[in-house]
Sequence to fold (286 residues):
Amino acid sequence: MIEALLNFDFMRYSLASGLLIGLIAPLIGAFIVVRRLSLIADALSHVTLGGISFGMFIVTVMPTLAFINPMWFGILYAVIGALLIEKLRTSYSNYQEIAIPIIMSAGIALSAIFISLADGFNQEIVGLLFGSISAVTLSDLFTIIVIVIIVLVFILSFYKELFILSFDEVYSKVIGIPKWIQFIFIIIVAMVISASMRVVGILLVSALITLPVAISMRLTKGFKQLIILSVVIGEISVIGGLVLAFYMNISPGGVIVVFLVLILAITMMYQKFKTRTIKGDANDEN
Fold:
């Protein structure tokens, strides 16, 4: 692994981007999970695939545009999808969750159409679906770095407002938190999903956003502790997943997610054992 990092650029790009994704995905996921919008990551990941497949179709039709990274089309589609979800949530105020399956369905439909028009599935599409160590280019890494900077600046600048929005959206309106913060946040979510797809894969990106938070919720009490532990777990899973994927020559996305599922299962078993031990000690005292 160390020799590969020294000799191959794509390995360095993958590790660097993986570490960055392991930071921002759980970070933004903490706010998403608390707001009970976990499925939004799934919806936007499918919209992102629609954008990327559209970019590939454009390149197929107009080879002169081959210099354009399809990832930018994915980001554009994800941002549009995020804004449409927010618009639909406003329109269906009593059934806000319906916005997510609507946009998810549209994303899947667009993906199917453009993948077919772009000569069907190929190795690049498969890599985007499930992640690929060799898929990350220098251009992708620069894009991810820019997105990481935007995410960190936004979170640090509006942490208090995002905290209130996450726990009580009605109260945030009462105290006058600007609505544009919510719109920028949803755009940020779309950008994080687009950035994560190269390493984790579009079909599995929501797991890296939500699973570290799900694990941390069982171990922490405060929101800041939740964020910190989620990021730590995210980084551990990404590093472990990339290393195992390299040696086993398989897609890293699945390995990373299985890594997280195992951590969650171990956490739940530990808590169950701990609860039984406490109850047993209490019964012995009685």
